[in-house]
Amino acid sequence: MADPLFRETQQALESNKQKLSDIGRLLGIGARREELKRREAEAASPAFWADSQKARKLSKELNDLKKVVQEYGDAERSVGDLTAHLELALEAEELSELKDVREGLDALNRILTDLDMRLKLSGEFDASDAIFSLNAGAGGTEACDWADMLLRMYKRWAESKGFEFAVTDIHQGEEVGIKSVSAFVRGAHAYGYLKSEAGVHRLVRISPFDSNKRRHTSFASCDVLPDIEEEIDIQVNEADLECDTFRAGGHGGQNVNKVETAVRIRHIPSGLIVTCRIERSQHQNRMTALRMLKARLYQIELDKKRSAVEKHYDAKGDIAWGHQIRSYVLMPYQMVKDLRTGYETSQIQAVMDGDLDAFIHEYLAWLAAGKPPRKTAAEREE
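Now predict its structure.
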């Protein structure tokens, strides 16, 4: 068939076959399949749950392994189906059949992109769940509204990945939006994906709150920590904790606004404060808040071992001009640009609806290639 569309589709399919082969080699997919069989046999043993804490950890690892093997198998089957479908389309010289093949290639590309991202998630805690927080910067109503827009964006992203997004604490803005929010994001490699989002996010738009329709710039910061495993030894002295209880806000229920189930813990030596109000009992909220505190303390200990340039909080900087990692411009043009990787898109509505995978993939590739020197604020804005 001489039609260029057929040739282009055939080349794209061959390219994806090669990419799948390369990913399989790098993943060691044969060894992973054997490991999956071994782990499933172990999990079926009655002795598996003798140590419940260890069993929970192993079950999570098993589920993560199963997902990788399943995704690779889906990609293999997709390649086989598309190859057969393309051969039929070539024989029949039928362009309508070719359309189905090209749609299938789009779906295959998404699977391969996910697998490729997993190859780059090799950090110590990349497989962990994430402790996620947003804080509005200076600017009052504008900043609170921007933080609320980001919260919606990340909720949509988590939903698209099949992740759980459980809010532990939220402070509403005085007029609209939110001042701050904390949440657990639970799912395979949640921290590995979301670590790309830690930093200051900048919005440029015509303000809906300005009667003169002037352009405003708003800032909000995102912070992401791994939800560290319980066996990591972080000692917290009870004498170093100040604990307050208060009534959890909400829309009602048996305990909400009736008893003091919400817990706020202040770690006196570090000054860190964590709050949890989503669990049903004060005890559960206290245990969840302690987990969040230990994760923050562990991150601080890791930061002490890094150079000043690599420090987590220093890299994030102030919630203001010159420290942003990503810009979202609504006026006078539409663009979202990551100032670290240089990746940009004009599809801003799709991004605000949670389509962040391209930004995450570019960041992971940037990390894998080795971080370039940090640019000055002026250089990043050029």
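The longest helix spans residues 52-92.
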